[in-house]
Design brief:
Helices cover 76% and strands 0% of the residues. It has 15 helices and no strands. Helix 2 runs antiparallel to helix 3, helix 6 (81-97) runs antiparallel to helix 7 and helix 10 (157-170) runs parallel beside helix 12 (194-206).
Length: 259
């Protein structure tokens, strides 16, 4: 390392210092040395966002979240493009781990707006969406879902919208928003598979459109892919629909099928 430090190539020196810092970071007993090397690198290239990113990684290993966030904020000042979105998502993940939902969602949204790829968004979104439902924050939930949907391929969006509608109805009791999503999905109903039709039928029941729920339930029951248990559960769901709309003939037919 001493030989490298007298090199005329400052970037080579910085890179070597960071490499040494990352090696030291592997062992907890060497974390202080790791930070010392990383800080030497940052002093030589204070405008290099990657240097601050390495310092943040070491701080995270030490569970020093506030120091890691400060390092990442410094990194952001000098980053753009792909590097910037990765840093924003790392900051979102830290806030998510600390259950700071609002700040995490804001950082996630910034990364999504800058074009972060879906494969980078998904791991962070998974915990954040769970956190939004646990904290009952519909605003955060919808922001996260909309960002994921916008970043997803066209062929995957119907499935994501369907799950969003289900959660809005079941968790947040927002039936109007669920209905609006279902209206958007209507052109795709014919393409739905067995699982999607099950979700669709359950959503119609939740938003009190029991008559409409009967059609996807019929499609499901007629499928040869159902196990006996699944068929029984779906018949029970249809019985609930038939009872709600007081369709005597359908109630009788479903009861016969159940027996």
């Amino acid at each position: 390392l001493r030989i490298v430090e007298i090199s005329a190539d400052k970037h080579e020196v910085v890179r070597s210092l960071l490499d040494v810092a990352q090696v030291y970071a592997i062992e907890p007993c060497n974390h202080d040395q790791a930070i010392a090397f990383a800080k030497r690198a940052s002093l030589m290239e204070p405008d290099n966002g990657n240097d601050w990113g390495v310092i943040a990684d070491i701080m995270l290993i030490r569970n020093e979240y506030q120091d890691a966030m400060r390092a990442l904020q410094k990194a952001l000042k000098y980053q753009e493009g792909f590097e910037r979105t990765r840093t924003l998502l790392k900051m979102a993940q830290i806030n998510s781990d600390l259950e700071e939902l609002i700040e995490a969602t804001k950082l996630f949204h910034q990364a999504a707006q800058l074009g972060a790829p879906l494969e980078d968004l998904l791991p962070v979104a998974e915990h954040l969406i769970f956190l939004a439902t646990m904290q009952h924050s519909q605003t955060a939930f919808e922001t996260l879902c909309n960002d994921l949907i916008a970043a997803s391929p066209e062929e995957d969006r119907a499935e994501l919208l369907l799950q969003q509608a289900m959660t809005l109805a079941r968790v947040f009791d927002d039936l109007d928003s669920a209905r609006r999503i279902i209206d958007v999905l209507k052109p795709h109903f014919a393409e739905f598979d067995l699982t999607q039709n099950c979700v669709l039928a359950d959503i119609f029941t939740l938003i009190h459109e029991e008559q409409t729920a009967i059609e996807p339930n019929f499609k499901i029951i007629r499928s040869n892919e159902l196990s006996e248990k699944q068929r029984f559960q779906r018949l029970q769901a249809m019985l609930v629909n038939a009872t709600q709309i007081e369709d005597t003939a359908l109630i009788k037919n479903v009861c016969t099928a159940i027996m």
